[in-house]
Each structure stands twice: as C-alpha cells, then as structure tokens.
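Input/output pair, single chain:
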Amino acid sequence: MKYLIILALIISACTMKNENSPNEGNIITLSNGKIEAKVLLNGGGGLVTFSNFKSENVLLSDESLWNNDLLTNTDKYDEPKFYPFSGHINWVGPQSEWWTQQNEFPKLKEQKSVWPPDPYLVLGDYKLLNKTETLVKLISPKSKYSGVQFTKEYIINDDSSLDLILEMENIRDTEVSWDIWFNTRMNGFCKVYVPIATESDLRLEYRNGAGQEPINHIIENGFFSFIPEKPAHGKTEKVAKSFIYPNENRIYAFTENEMLVIEFDRYNRELTHPEQGMIEIFNSIRDTGDALLELEYHSPYYKLESGESKLSKERWYLDKYNGSNSMEDHIAKINSWEINFNK
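Output:
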C-alpha cells in the first residue's frame, strides 16, 4: 500500500510539472486553442513566436537562444551587448539618443552611438506581474541608461487577435523624452504592404558600404512594398529602410501560408520625432542567405516629467493565406480580409 501511495505521488508530481511546464522558467506560453504566442522573461520580455495553433511561427526568431543563460546578473547591464533573439521587441526612440543620457560609457555618448540598444530594456530579466492562459503582464528593470521602466502586457482577445501594450514610465527625478518603438522581425523574403497616399509620404535611406546595393520598392494600388531579391553577383547585401506616414492604421505582411496584420494608433505626423517615421520598414538580404524584415511603429515623441507614464499599443491579427507570392494575390487577400473584418 505504501508503494502505491508513493507511486501515486510521483505520478501526480509529474502531471503537475507537465501541466505547468510550458509556462515555467524563461518561456511564457499564451494560447486560446486557436493562436499561440511565446514570450521570453529574460530576453527583454520579447515575443518570440506568434502562430495559428500548431502552424508555422510567422516571426523570425532564434530558438537556440531562448533558454541560454547568456549573461550573468553582474555583467548583463554593465556591458552594452546584444543577442539576436529577434521576434518582437520594444526600444525607445530616437535611436541617435540611445546613449546620450548616461555617463558610464562616454565614448558611446560622444559618438551618439546607435548600437546596441539599452540592455536593461532588451536583455533585462522582466518580472512576472500577472499570468493567465491568455494574458501576461511583465515589468522591466529600471534603466539607468534611458531613465525609464517598461511594463508590457500581451493579451489574446476573444476574436484571437493579440494586443501588445507597453507603458513607459520616467523613473528619473528630471524630465526625459522618448517615443515608444515597436519592432517586429520576420524573414527578409516575406512581403510587406503599407497603405500610403502619395510618394511624398515616403522617405528612403540606403547604405553605401562596400558590396551593398539598394533593395527596390514599389508603390501600387495604394500600397508601399519592398521587392526582396538576392544581391547581384559580387555584391554582399541588398538593403534599404523606408520611413512612412501611412494613410491607414495597418501593416500587412505575408509568409508563404499566413497573413499578419498589425494595427496601430495613427496620429498627426508632426508628433513623430523628425529622425524617425511613424512606420519604418527595414529590409536586408545578404549573399550568405541571411534575410531580415523589420516592421516598426513609433508612438508620438513624449516629454515625460518625473514619475509620468505614457502607453502605446499594437493589435495583431493572423489569417491563413493560400495564394501565390504575387502582389496581385496579396492585395486581393488584403481587400477580402478588410471586407470581412468590417462586416
């Protein structure tokens, strides 16, 4: 009888562990049985997967980094480092001011370095504040470099959309000024479409390093899109970045089998920091096969008094796609989705 009791306790313990294991440790899993999202606690509270249940992850993410203890607690924040977890992450903007509000790294401050991002915000061990099957709320360490603290919330809604909510609080005794930056990474050969009224609402930046050439773009049917292609022979990278004032509040991106829709709060363009864009799309295709697409949204540029907070958010939708990789089929899918969405 004693052995049966012990065996029952072992089975019970194993069952409890299996039930909780998806949400234990560094990885938090949210699911409603239709969509699934995974969040890293010690990877800056970043979102590393988003998928229709048991289908492909639409985000570009390096799973080999998810469970690694890359940095000790002592050097995690005291040395500017970066690890490419990818997926979705939040920064502050403008990028040129990342290291101008601290004195620990005078060279980075003097150069107005644009890399790496604040490790408190992107590598930090985020504290779990609340967790259900479809919601997680996290808070970052307080950053002595940027002077802010992030509180993040991911919520799967009843319609299977996903809310990404970020609150930025000034933790200094003095004023700070930043925007809230949402950055979503996908494979660089995915196609993206941003609604745009005229080419005057577009600014493009190209890199001019050795072996680099610009990625071509197109504006057609009211949408901006890059045309991702491999570099020409003898070139190492096709790359460009676009800064867009959109005339609608959505971005559309396509993998082979899914359409990701990112909805955001559209606001007066004068509130965007002049160095940034409300929407920014970065695309890079390397001769090595590495390919990156970044879908970026900037909130208004805020001036925060001590203790003041501002909140910004995105809402994501995911829909199956079974058409070709052509712009014609992609636009048809967008229009069909919009019609059904607005019913």
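The two ends are 63 Å apart (CA to CA). The chain has four helices and 21 strands.
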